[in-house]
Amino acid sequence: MTTLEKRRIQTTITLGEGQFGEGKGSEVVLSGYRATVLVEQISTDKQASLQMVIYGLPLDMMNRLTCIGPVMSQVRFNGITVTAGTDGAILGTVYQGTITQAWADLSAMPDSKLNIVAQAAYIDAIKPVPASSFKGAVAVDQIMSGLAAQMGLAFENNGVSVKLSNPYFPGTAYDQVRACAKAAGISFIIDRGVLAIWPMNSARAEGPIRVAPDTNLVGFPAFTASGIVLTTFFEPNIAVGKRVEVDSALQVAAGEWIVYNCYHYLESETPGGKWFTQMICQRPYGK
């Protein structure tokens, strides 16, 4: 990818309808606007978050969308999906979640701003559900796949075969996922509509994503006390738990790493704007 390619961010917002906002209502698609995006995936015990600003929306659209924030008397299911890429190419999904706040900033009119904050599993972290209880030994992937279905998520098991004896998990669906993962000693993440699980100190099964100076690596690897920091041009497939294969003349940086934290920094309709993915990685366990 070159810096001369035109970059596009498309945002799809689905407004919740009904008394409690759990019904799927009208859909708004915003494309071609100047926008900034920060997506954060920080470890496996915190929801992936989105901070976004969309510029220049017409006033009627601002009025329609700001009805979902900033202070809501009831939490409603207002979904958001953000895709990004270059014009003429297939856009990659960079984020999927629930809007927690949305407010207009009209102080610099006509350059209006719509501010959006979202979390990957917000509704499922606050909505009451029945506790999960099982008799005898039960496979963790059976528990997790059931919770994924309850949350409306796809399920991805990356080699977890642990069983738990007589498990009981109260709380919200998200609380139950966290508690099950802790009891089983495994990692998990909710990543763009998927609940993924994998053994602790391991990785998701998908093959490693190549990171190299001749394709996507920006600058040089940096090091932390326990790993490495890599910055690439935007790579939507990079996420927590996935593997990257670093091709570098710096031997200490070369080879396979597991992504533990991931950040996407994007700006569209901005000459020279940010279009990067940054990740904090560690070596596979025992290597």
Can you give a write-up of this model?
β1 and β2 form a beta hairpin. The chain is built from four helices and 20 strands. It has a domain at 7-125. Mean pLDDT is 90; it is low at 69-73. Helices cover 12% and strands 44% of the residues. The two termini are 32 Å apart. The protein is flat, with a radius of gyration of 20 Å. The protein has 287 residues and is mainly beta. The strands form four sheets. Strands 1, 2, 3, 4, 5, 6, 7, 15, 16, 17, 18, 19 and 20 form a 13-stranded mixed β-sheet that branches. Strands 10-14-13 form a three-stranded mixed β-sheet, covered by helices on one side. α3 (140-150) packs antiparallel against α4. It has helices at residues 59-65, 122-126, 140-150, 173-184, and strands at residues 7-17, 23-31, 35-42, 49-55, 79-86, 92-105, 113-119, 132-133, 137-139, 154-157, 163-165, 168-169, 186-190, 194-199, 209-211, 222-223, 228-233, 243-246, 255-268, 275-282.
Report the total helices.
Answer: 4
The H-and-E topology, N to C, reads as: EEEEHEEEHEEHEEEHEEEEEEEE
- Kindly state the number of beta strands: 20
Rounded to the nearest angstrom, the radius of gyration is: 20 Å
Mean pLDDT: 90
Overall helicity: 10-25%
